[in-house]
Here is the input.
Amino acid sequence: MSVSVRLDGKVAIVTGASRGIGEAIARALADHGARVVLAARKIEGLKAVADSIGENAHPVAAHTGREEECQRLVKETIDRFGKVDVLVNNAATNPYFGPILGIDNGAWDKTFEVNVKGYFFMAREVSRHLVDRKAPGSIIHVSSVAGLIGAPLQGVYAMTKAAIVSMTKTMAIELAPSQIRVNAIAPGFVATRFASAIVENPDLSREVIKRTPAGRVGTPDEIAGGALYLASDAASYLTGHTLVIDGGMTIG
Here is the structure.
């Protein structure tokens, strides 16, 4: 078998695709032949990204923390492009930054709703579709190094990302007989608006860079390369894995 990262003929859904890592992943998949549905809560940013990609991109506003909106998103993708082959669960939230004991119940519930329930709802809908089609597929969960190590000031967010690693492993085992691969990506600190509380804080950023052998924070495009690999047939024998892309931070 020849090794290829081309995605010609494949249809992908990328959540949280209006900016940052999600936007970079959507562009990478489209650049390598996929038709891509871009999802996020607000349509305006999605339309701008979709317009810049071209006719192979379609924006859909959806709150993935709500099961009925996940169902609608998958249905609209099938109505538009005929099927789904790849899911990238990237949408996430982190409404609280501070000591873990200080979080209120509303912020706790919101974090788990989007970061865990949303990933599960989307993965379940796409998996059901793939099983019904008797088709192989790739599900990619964007976790975080925060889910692999202690994460002061991000404790509940880190819990959700650790849950994603566990979800990935169990889904990989249960879905393997249906030729559905399930993997995760754990980015380190990446220069995005989402990570601005750390990346744009000189003291915190300096501490992160000091702990990172690569000596810098990452870029969204560097995470997108991992997603492209996992989505492609080049990763056909890889499932249940968490691909850490962190400049070496977690090996220190």
